[in-house]
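Co-fold these.
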Amino acid sequence: MNRRKFLQNTVPAAVTMPALLNGFSFTAHGTSGNSLARLFDEVATDTDHVLVLIQLAGGNDGLNMVIPLDVYANYYNARTNVAIPQSQVLRLDGTERSGLHPAMTALQNMYNEGKANVVQSVGYDNPNFSHFRATDIWNSGDTTQNRRQRVKTGWMGRYLESEFPGYPDAYPSAEMPDPLAIQISSVPTLMVQGEIYSMGLSITNPEKVYTFTNPFSDYPLTSAYANKELKFLRVVSEKTKIYSDLIRAAYQRAATMATYPTGSSLADQLRIVARLIKGGLKTRVYTVTIGGFDTHKRQVNASDTTTGFHAQLMKNLSEGIQAFQTDLEMMQIDERVIGMTYSEFGRRIKSNASLGTDHGAAAPLVMFGTHVKKGILGNSPDIPADIQVVNNIPFQYDFRSIYASVLEQWFCVKQPALNNIMLQNYQSLPLIKGGPCGIPDTPDDTNNNANNLILKMWPNPYTVSGTIQFSTTGGHTMIQQIDALGRVIKVLTSREYAAGTYNIDIYNDGLASGAYFIRLQNKSLQKVITVVKMP
Amino acid sequence: MDRREFLTRAMKKRTAIQQNRKRMFAGLNPYAGSWTINEVTHLLKRTMFGAKKADVDYFLTLSPGAAVDELLNNVTVPSPPVRDYGLIEDEFGVMHDDLGVAQGQTWVNDPNTASDPGVRGTINALRVQSLKKWWSGLIINQSRGIQEKMVLFWHHHFSIQESEVENSQMLYRHHNLLRSNALGNFKTLVKEVTIDPAMLIHLNGYLNSRQAPDENYARELQELFTVGIGPDSLYTEDDVIAAARVLTGWRITNNPLGSYFDTNAHDTGAKGFSSFYNNATIAGSTNEDQELDALVNMITDTDEAARFICRKLYKWFVYYEIDEAAETDVIIPMAEILKSNNYEVKPALEVLFKSEHFFDTVNQACYIKTPFDMIVGTLREFNTPFPAYTDYTTGYPLFFSLYQRAAEMQMELFQPPDVSGWPSYYQEPMHYELWVNSNSLPRRADFTNALVDDAVIDVRAFAGYSSNPADPNQLIIDVTALLLRYPLSVNSRNYVKSRFLLNNTTDDTVWTNAWNSNNNTVINNSLRDMFKFLMNLPEFHLC
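Predicted complex below.
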């Protein structure tokens, strides 16, 4: 094959599939076939729902945000110098098991009013402790270790690209006249990256006026290359101007109604988001960022562990979210918006000597909004009494189960698109109430049902052989073995089961001696127990 | 028009032109055409960051050949980065000094073991920061040569990331390796980079052992650094494994920083390669150079290695499309020159930059500026004064802002997106176009607008470059000849003139009178608005 043919053959599917949709010609990008599949399926889902993602950059200390009251002694023992005193933990309606950081009274009120929830121990199977890589994992939804096999797109990018194939060429359109996603930052993140283009716009000042100018249609050069690039630049600058004008107009159409805390960059960003939504943008996703969570040192003040850097962050987060929710309610658009926090990792269970905590694994996340289902999903993390530096919190919920559930229950994404976007099938978790996508609003008994599941192992500790007994309500059931660092090291079963109780025998599993977790996942239910392997 | 229609149209156009070019294709024959401001700015904007008026005037006095010789041979050896930071606060709020080096002294030979252990991490981070400032300082202070663009090219080529290496001494050592060999021998560079501590960390070479071979570097060495994955690159998976075995045993020492060959970890068996490498066998050895040299020789003996590196240089300096004619008439002969000169880079670059092909109008004005072309090029073209790169008190903070602006526009020094470097030079079909999107374009506009609004650049001095600034027609012709590679049509020039210089009239004397009477308010306001407009034109992004 000659080089030219080769190049033509290896050009990604990007430019090979013209089609006409609602009168707009567009280009389907990508080799995965996602967008092509959608093409013949349906047009973009008709929804006015909005998701606001709050990135807690640096790795949030989840254990001091949601304090496990039911294992408080072990919690305190593991991090005496940074532990929040039990008496000062903010209590949540209907549960004795966990409470919030004392600086989060605003979020406590929202929880008690049924406008916020907590999902415990969110993480993934092979935790990465590098800020860069772990952030990429959360933004892409891909934990693949082999660099070559990883996707280069973001989970939101894949969603938006499947909803709006051909962006940006065929947009703005009558169907989607506004930016697909807006990030309040100076650079777009991987989260909204599509196959080739970013599906999002990043802005820092919504009122900025750009004077991109394309006054002339003449192309004085006879060079094809130069004309091609100039034409491209003119198209980009026209679109950029259109979008910046749209954003400015929307911002100016709406006024802030609630009172936001001052001196908080998160509050400033959320205030912009509320105005843009109220101003009429059909944008589906907004991201905002609050930094400073990399609290290796002095996350608390020695004199009073309820104060310090982390306390200030918790206060800013909690008050920022409440002001935003209030603003949305006063603007009467709260029914359309949910939000959630995420951070690249939690922090180590055991604190360090510098009044701080080092990089860790799973952590709780918070969701908020008029439509989030009240409650705490999952159990307090298992904290060993004889805490070691290496001990990490294993995940109870895969972060992609949260993403998949939001796409399914808030954006009404159906199969097979959902699996295409998420790259595989994930557990559906009960996170949204009111059934906006027509999914039945089941009573919140997930935790109770999970507690009724049988999961035990004998003997425990075990040496060479052992038996794991588990029950399932039927359907897909998985059992994973997780090491002390929070890494899944064995999947003992993962298949469809009929409802019932089953045994799995272990013989000579070749694992080093030490503590492990056995995690049972049965549809939306999950349960984790600690087992010990003896030499 | 949508993108597809636009691409097919452009492609159709190109087919027509290609048929044309078959007859009159400009290959590597020495360029003997006209030597005007057009050709000089083309050469300078591609080989340096921006074309400064003084440089344009200077090179106009030379022949094209002499100009290229000077650009290729003007190489300076800078002094290393220095400590620019003061005391460092530890986790308990106590202040410590960096006991390894004093302020103003270089840290590149200091292992960072003298200071309080609680602040060494911060010291390392501050040193990395000073390294970025220093490099940005060298770029903005570049002399009349290709050196800085070549250093950046090698950083793109042997892409390493600060986030993986996390060691200031290693990053500097790696950078200095690229810098010292930027216009030297490619084989030397490949050999040295292979055993460079930063690269040993970045691609796991330091973990590669006889007992547990790690193929990471051996794979990238072939796929990204030497032969690539074009249609004629036929190395096999077994070649990756064999190369990994050749490279087993290289380890790092921290004090002094270096690498060494641990024969205990080295696989001394014979390594056989595929027919792509002529079924070569590399005999096992415990000599530290023997197998490594044999591997580098074996790889670079292929024609594909020379062609691959020439294609990368071509995309960096000329254009990203390499059609059949360019492959046959430019890449292949250029690769032959590279190979017959034992991979000395300079002779190959020399023939490229002196060629008809390089100056062919089809290759002019089609290069989308990189963030550094945009930032440093613009500042240099306006002759904005900067402190010397060695000035760590007033210079380093300014240099850091250059680094930050470029990072915002998606070109961050020491942090390319991944080991393949910047996608603008390899990602089909967009290439350079990936630099410009609805996110980066506003950042570029913010930057050039701020240069004017904050009077960072002197627009009036720039107008003074015109042979007759009092004549609005001549003024626009002269400033756009320096600023834009893509010329404005007569209609466009008239629009700019009327809107910005003639107060929306067609009367040239409006401007001439203002200029001649030295009416500062009118002159400055008009020029400010005009230059902001010119730098917001899509044409401004082309060079």
